[in-house]
Specification:
This protein starts with a helix and ends with a helix. It has helices at residues 3-21, 24-32, 38-72, 78-121, 127-174, 178-218. It contains six helices and no strands.
């Protein structure tokens, strides 16, 4: 089947199957009928998670820049400042939620893949081949655990930043006066440090994702 038809199948037919059954196994079985297996889906979802983490980094950096520009002003339209900062917070929250959704989708297909792999190992009659496949499963699982732990750390690093943003957006909303902007200045350094930690965690997670994809394709 051509790539175009596979994409058409994925975007049109698969959602219909899922809405009818609500079963993950139906989803995976449907893809396998067009020669797309759990391994392929896992790689695709890891890549999507990596891309979402990169997008989230940029969104948080943009939000920090907006925060900094607001607190640096001596005279500003406070309502407009609130609107700008709140918009950045909402965009950052959306980016964080997308990262979480992507990580959860990786975990779902990985669980299905490893369960299927283990079940298939039990079907071997050749002990040497069974041992080799068992070793591959164990090694792949260890690499996956390392990658997923890194993803979860990067996910967790977003929450302190979102909390600080939300607190300051609410503070500005509730105190639309000159003193509010002055009070926000003290938060900027802390927020800057949190985002530096976040970017570092995400970069490590992205690197782990790249290594996992490379190893999975080689094995």
């Amino acid at each position: 089947m051509s790539l175009h038809l596979k994409n058409l199948f994925g975007f049109i037919l698969l959602p219909l199957l899922l809405s009818a059954s609500g079963c993950a196994s139906t989803y995976y079985n449907a893809w396998e009928k067009v020669d797309v297996h759990k391994r392929d889906i896992l790689v695709s979802r890891v890549e999507n998670t990596r891309d979402s983490q990169q997008d989230a980094q940029e969104e948080f950096k943009d939000a920090l820049e907006q925060f900094g520009s607001i607190v640096a002003l001596q005279d500003t339209d406070l309502k407009r400042a609130y609107d700008r900062l709140n918009a950045e917070y909402e965009d950052s929250q959306d980016a964080a939620e997308e990262v979480t959704d992507r990580i959860n989708s990786v975990a779902a297909v990985a669980d299905a893949l490893f369960k299927e792999w283990q079940q298939e190992i039990e079907q071997y009659t050749n002990t040497e081949l069974k041992s080799g496949s068992t070793r591959q499963l164990r090694e792949t699982n260890l690499r996956y655990d390392t990658m997923l732990n890194s993803m979860r750390k990067s996910e967790a690093s977003m929450q302190p930043v979102l909390n600080t943003f939300r607190d300051n957006v609410l503070f500005l909303k509730h105190n639309l006066n000159a003193q509010a902007i002055g009070s926000l200045k003290g938060e900027f350094a802390s927020l800057q440090n949190d985002i530096t930690v976040l970017v570092g965690e995400m970069n490590r997670s992205i690197a782990e994702s790249e290594r996992f994809i490379a190893n999975l394709r080689q094995s």
